[in-house]
Amino acid sequence: MFVLLLFTDQITKYLVYSHQDSLNPKSIIPNVLELQYVENTGAAWGVFSGAKYFFIIITLIAVVLMGIYYLKTQFTPSNLWIHLSLGLMITGAFGNCMDRVFRGFVVDFIYVSCIHFPVFNVADMCVCVGAGIFVIASFLAMSKETNQGE
């Protein structure tokens, strides 16, 4: 699944990058969803623009640490959500890191115009969904441990 998500991220970025002139902006669902080509040289929403090497190093450290945690966490039904979340975050982080290494910037292209949400990509979705699942799964695990100790 993670390989498929990474492939989807990279192929969609390649297609958008290859057709950027015809995409600015391209309405998919009027007043809701657009394709809009953006070159992001920073972190989320363009914060710290131009810090390419810093983000590459930080991302690689984060991927290694998440990978170690993934491997050290025993795969059991109760840890399924933790493993899923880590896999999603690693996939997304690696996808955006590949952009920084090979292009010098991250290609963003999905724009939810009805709420004016910043432009993002498939890797960003993996990171955000993975982080959300990780937080919820961690709270549930802590709650379960607390209840068992009573």
Describe this entry's structure for a reader:
The chain has four helices and three strands, in the order H-E-E-H-H-E-H. The protein has helices spanning 2-18, 52-72, 80-102, 122-148; strands at 26-29, 33-40, 106-112. A hairpin with a 3-residue loop joins strand 1 (26-29) and strand 2 (33-40). 24% of the residues are buried.
CA-based shape? globular
Report low-confidence residues grouped into runs of 5 or more. Answer: none
The assigned structural class equals: alpha+beta
Q: For the largest beta sheet, what order do the strands appear in spatially?
A: 1-2-3
The termini sit apart by 39 Å
Number of strands: 3
Largest sheet: 3 strands, antiparallel
How much β-strand is present in the residues?
5-15%
Number of helices: 4
Order of helices and strands: HEEHHEH
Rounded mean pLDDT is: 92
Keyword list:
single chain; 150 residues; alpha+beta; three-stranded antiparallel sheet; globular
SSE layout and pairings?
Layout: H1 2-18, E1 26-29, E2 33-40, H2 52-72, H3 80-102, E3 106-112, H4 122-148
Antiparallel strand pairs: 1-2, 2-3
Helix pairs in contact: 1-3, 2-3, 3-4
Would you kindly provide a brief summary of this structure?
With 150 residues, this protein is of the alpha+beta class. The protein is built from four helices and three strands. The relative contact order is 0.18.
